[in-house]
Design goal:
137 residues, alpha+beta, four-stranded antiparallel beta sheet, globular
Length: 137
């Protein structure tokens, strides 16, 4: 489970179902059905995202690189190139800060969406990486 929680938002991703595909293509070896929950103030949204294990591994590697390198950068997770995105941006000056941006569409090809932007300190990133790793177990 990936859980990002602060005074402004609660964002949770859990694995609802896993389907084993062919091992011939490691990036697509496992299909995951992810349950997404977003809560902020009086707003609550739930949705389902589909993705492959390779997308999660790539996201985890990009997050690790973001954490380990002292440069401004942005990492985007958009499973199966759908409209909804989870973006983490690193700003190194004047001090290391992360910005979590969520753009969650109500349905595919919809213009109705929830947009959230939240500042996270550097202590959050290790927990996010660990949560992303948990999705692969």
């Amino acid at each position: 489970m990936l859980e990002i929680k602060n005074t402004e938002i609660e964002f949770i991703i859990t694995v609802d179902d896993k389907q084993i595909n062919s091992a011939d293509y490691p990036y697509y070896e496992i299909y995951l059905k992810l349950s997404i929950t977003f809560i902020s103030g009086g707003v609550k949204d739930t949705s389902i995202w589909g993705c492959y294990n390779g997308e999660i591994k790539k996201f985890r590697a990009e997050l690790t690189d973001l954490k380990d390198n002292n440069r401004n950068n942005t990492v985007v997770f958009s499973p199966m190139n759908e409209s909804s995105t989870l973006t983490i941006e690193k700003i190194t000056t004047p001090y290391e800060t992360y910005i979590l941006t969520l753009k969650l569409f109500s349905s595919l090809n919809s213009e109705t969406f929830i947009y959230s932007k939240s500042i996270l300190d550097q202590s959050y990133l290790s927990g996010i990486i660990e949560g992303v790793s948990d999705l692969l177990k």
